[in-house]
Amino acid sequence: MATDKRKVLLVGGAGYVGSVMTGHLLGKGWSVRCLDQLIYKNESCAWPYLINPQYEFMRGDVRDPRIVTQALKDVDDVVILAGLVGDPITSKFPDESHAINRAGIGSLIDTLRNHPVDRLIFVSTCSNYGLVEEDTAVDENYPLAPLSLYAKHKVEMEQKILSLKGKVGFHPTVLRFATAFGLSSRMRFDLTVNEFVRELHLGNELLVFDPKTWRPYCHVSDFSRAVEQVLGAPTDKVAFEVFNVGCEENNFTKLMVVEEILKHIPRSKVTYQERGADPRNYRVNFEKIRRVLNFTPEVSVPQGVNEILAALRQGLFDHVEEQRHFFGNYEIFLPAPHVSDLKRAI
Ligand SMILES: NC(=O)c1ccc[n+]([C@@H]2O[C@H](COP(=O)([O-])OP(=O)(O)OC[C@H]3O[C@@H](n4cnc5c(N)ncnc54)[C@H](O)[C@@H]3O)[C@@H](O)[C@H]2O)c1
After folding, report:
1. Is 19 in the pocket of ligand 1 (CB under 6 A)?
2. CA-nearest residue, atom 39 of ligand 1
3. How many CB atoms sit inside 10 A of residue 81's CB?
4. Which of 205, 185, 196 lies closest to 323, judged by CA?
5. Ligand 1 mean position, distance from CA 62 (Å)
6. Residue 16, ligand 1, Cβ within 6 A
7. pLDDT score recorded for residue 241
8. Residue 187 Cβ < 6 Å to ligand 1
9. pLDDT of residue 135
């Protein structure tokens, strides 16, 4: 395996996407170091990997330059996943979002300039496209129109990275992920497909805002495959490139997602309401990642619905309400500022 001696740093590697990616990359021969502050009390996501000598876990904040420097030691590649993820959590905690998603990630990117890393993958989002004309499936060149603080910071970090062309020794790639679905040890039931399946499984009435709005979806395991492919691709194919990650078959309206679930749970109660709080509407074109990297996701939305439902029906998620903080991005648990940091601030 060409990757035998490569060590990848997953920043935010104990989250929903990172937990699955860790197992995938370890299985493919990478050494993985995870830097994560565990802001959802998601310690348990590191447990399964600690026995593996190719895995290291570091608890720490991406905003702490000393920790970041330690985490970068002897690392070949870096994947940035960390941050406050999603529109609701960033609008609930705007100050922390500025501090982490903008200042913290920005300073990590600056720090990388002094380290001999090879690849950098910045995980961004298709949310950056915002509201798109009905008949357009947007490609990577479509003008970005971020509607939330979350997407605005993503766009800012993308621009910061892409502006480094010719100025840095490492090879960065921006991946704009579709909305994830599927099982992870840091399960998130605040993501559309996962949430809808659980609500209808529980027999709850589901209120769906703007049912005809489009979104691209992608299974969480397929993101791991995409990252693996980018890390292993020739640099001339991926350096300073932006790729949408997903596939057209998984562009679904919310109504289509609900209809998939109703095939399994037909007597569900669903109500629809136009003009909800979230105006995002976009279908995405994934031709570039298919053409350049020959990447196609393996898991469809209907398969994901089956997967989540099977787990719920076996009682694997019977205690979500008791540990709500773990099962979605609703609340954050950041350590109190250190006394010396407070003094500096004063
Ligand atoms: N989940 C999706 O649907 C989706 C869609 C598009 C893009 N993405 C991107 O994928 C990445 C991962 O998303 P996710 O769903 O796994 O999110 P997540 O919230 O599950 O994971 C984020 C991780 O970052 C960690 N973190 C947060 N602040 C930190 C800090 N200051 N220092 C160190 N670690 C910190 C958290 O503890 C958590 O483990 C994000 O960059 C997100 O923008 C996700």
Report:
1. no
2. 15
3. 24
4. 185
5. 12
6. yes
7. 98
8. no
9. 74
Centre of ligand 1 from the C-alpha of residue 303, in Å: 24
Hey, what CATH topology would domain 7-188+217-248+284-299+329-338 get? Rossmann fold (3.40.50)
Q: Which two tokens stand for residue 228?
A: 């693996």
Q: Rounded to the nearest 5 degrees, what angle is found at the Cα of 188, between the Cα atoms of 35 and 19? A: 35
CB-count exposure of residue 165 (10 Å: 0-12, 13-18, 19+): exposed
CA nearest neighbour of 182 among 227, 150, 222: 222
Ligand 1 contact, 120 CB (< 6 A): no
CA dist., res. 346 & res. 340, Å (int): 10
Ligand 1 atom nearest the C-alpha of 99 is 31
Report the separation in Å between the CA atom of 298 and the middle of ligand 1, taken as the mean of its atom positions. 22
Domain boundaries, the chain: 7-188+217-248+284-299+329-338
Find the 67 Cα to ligand 1 centroid distance in Å: 18
Kindly report the backbone phi and psi dihedral angles of residue 112, in degrees, each rounded to the nearest multiple of 5, phi listed first. Answer: -60, -25
Each residue of 45-73: pLDDT tens digit?
999 999 999 999 999 999 999 999 999 99
> Is the CB of 63 within 6 Å of ligand 1?
yes
Instruction: Report the alpha-carbon distance of residue 265 to residue 81 in Å, rounded.
Output: 34
Low-confidence ranges of the chain (pLDDT < 70): 1-4, 134, 276-279, 337-346
pLDDT at 1: 42
Gap between the Cα atoms of 24 and 32, Å rounded: 10
What pLDDT score was predicted for residue 64? 97
First to last CA, the chain: 52
Q: Each residue of 267-303: pLDDT tens digit?
A: 999 999 987 666 678 899 999 999 999 999 999 999 9
Residue 343 confidence (pLDDT): 55
Please indicate whether residue 191, judged by its CB atom, sits closer than 6 Å to ligand 1. Answer: yes
